[in-house]
Amino acid sequence: MKNKFTKFIKIAVVAAMFLAAVFMRIEFFGGFGKDIYAYEKSVEDILTGVNPYKWTVESYSNPDDPGNHGYAYLPLLLYLNSFFYIISKLSGVSFYVLSKIPILLADVGVGILLVKYLYRKNYAALLGALLFWFWNPYFYMKNNYVYTDPLPVFLSLLALYYLDKDDVLAGVFLALAVAAKPYSIVLLPLFLLRSQKPIKIIISSALIGFALSIPFLGSWDDFMTYLNGAVFVHEERFVQGRPFLWFISYYGKVELVRIIPVKFYVYASILSAWLFTSIAHFFFKIKEKYLLAAVCLALFYFFTPVLNRTYMLWIMPVYAITMYGVLGRKLLLYYLSLLSYWVFYYVYIYYWKEGFHIWRPL
Q: What is the pLDDT of residue 360?
């Protein structure tokens, strides 16, 4: 009887944390961020038969207006937004409210995956991980819910969960994660090296990519506009937000970046992660997938010339799982590791409130 009561209390506490996190986010469902114009225009374009990436390419070619860009990702979120845009028009419910439903579900999904990983291993560690994720520094500081990052975070975490278990599902969710936001491409070698049959990863990912691209396969011009707007525009990214190397250079008066073209850092943010994964796998025989994923994301953060405030959410659940794997039952050290990242994230975005844009470097 005592064991059943204890189990009930444990489940009730976790459920209460989920409910609190959900209700806190629902409170901000009516808000919208600076990207809403790009999202709405892309939806209106695709629903009226116009290639939405045409505006994306045009907007990125204007050096005098670096903050006004079109939708520049693969089209997963575009399709979700289009669905809820139609529902909004039919029901009269605000598009801003409806479009946050998949983001909230993904947010909760990350929590569920943390429960699945940690509940039976260490209940106290689970509570720390849930607090770490649901009350992340960005949400705590900004008190809004206008970001979409929980969706790619959930999909990439789900892909990592299925890695070693089901190559097809791992490939499917990795492709969907990249389609939501392309940062998960840094994990590609990890998936190929850790899968039982890499060809299944490749085929399942390719099929998802093909399915998502079907609306843009009507003509060669449409297809190339789609590729340019969703992929190739990122090659020409300018310095934006709060990238680490620029932060160090700017505030530390240490020249680290201006002598090398920005494009180098765009490629280094991806290729450094790929190189690390290969070396760790072949030379050091490191097999822990969450640890490898965390380091890949850390390398991306270090080199990328574009680091907006929500980007640092991407690593948080992977970091929470990784640190438990490293520290095991050393609960105090585990809590300190979570607190260290939380404080670092909070101080970083608090200290550098404005960030900057450099789109015409000398």
A: 47
